[in-house]
Amino acid sequence: MSLLIRARKPLTSPWPAADPFLFCAYHLDAYPASDGAQGLPPAALAGRDPNSDFSRRDGFSTYHSQPIPGFPAHPHRGFETVTVARSGLVDHSDSLGATARYGQGDVQWLTAGGGVMHAEMFPLANADADNPLDLYQIWLNLPPEDKMVPAAFKMLWAPTVPHYRYKNAQGATATVSIIAGAYLPVEQGPELVPPTPPPSSWAARPDTDVAIWLVVLEPGASITLPAARDVRSLRTLYFHYGTQIRVDGEPSQGQELYEVDASSTVELHNDGADEARVMLMQGVPIRAPVSAMGPFVMNTEQELWQARVDFGRTQFGGWPWPEPGPVHPLGKERFALYPGSSEAEYPPAS
């Protein structure tokens, strides 16, 4: 085994993660043409559990909602979600009164902090074509002192997310989408800096070296990822899409998780005939105890018990929307309306 690879194992779902991350859920759903009202047609829903469908039958799940798939109102406390929507749409609503529609490469960074309820629905925009959903949701822990900060979210619109592209001698291109953590190319070039996360995030601190990079490699493409800035960082690579890659010269054995030495550069090469993808998650560990149950991630069992009591008592502010899984009208453009604001934010021009 390469000296840079400290451990490797088959990839399971959700992806296990190293501190300061908790896990990543990857959703790749091949939704068919809609019923014309952003939902699945009756034939596609037949035989599915309307409340909990994770079957991936016919290449998709409906999760906790039908006919529009998604995750209706549910609570969180004590961590953050980073949702990367490469294709498809997500309609967000929350107990703060905020709402949004995003997709097409957008990223939503939600700090649950002391508590928030939100809904994540997947409206199907096309009635005469398929509706693929390609989405990552990464759970990032909060340090003990920030577990109870006020909830907040921020949109990282697709045009603001930097991308680094490298074409090798064979003419094949690798692209790195830089969601968190500045990227200084090994091959020379300017440093690429993504938008800042919410202020209470572990990733917002200058000394935590949090990085989230999505690497997409054409067949035959290669790239050398730069070393971490902090030798304390833990770095995990997730080969989750494609057939065959090499990590520091080591051929993959199916889709795998690699724990690698963050203090060194690491080379990736796509040996397969199709596109390959690798997600990098890296950061200085928080090194605090984790007590988690379902949607709550705290440090002690007492705090976890208190989270359940608080939610039962307050519903984290209550649910201001008429349905548990609100969706925006067909044809509504991407936007975000933040708590307390009457003016919507829209993606900047590309």
TrEMBL record:
Q: Which domain of life is it from?
A: Bacteria
InterPro entries from the UniProt entry:
Pirin, Pirin_C_dom, Pirin_N_dom, RmlC-like_jellyroll, RmlC_Cupin_sf
Q: Which SUPFAM superfamilies match?
A: RmlC-like cupins (SSF51182)
Where does the UniProt annotation place the signal sequence? Answer: none
Query: Which stretches make up the Pirin C-terminal domain?
Result: 215-317
Query: Which residue windows are transmembrane per the record?
Result: none
> Domain Pirin N-terminal spans what residues?
66-140
Give the record's family classification: Belongs to the pirin family.
Please state what the protein is called. Answer: Pirin
Name the source organism: Stenotrophomonas ginsengisoli
Q: What phylogenetic lineage does the species belong to?
A: Bacteria, Pseudomonadati, Pseudomonadota, Gammaproteobacteria, Lysobacterales
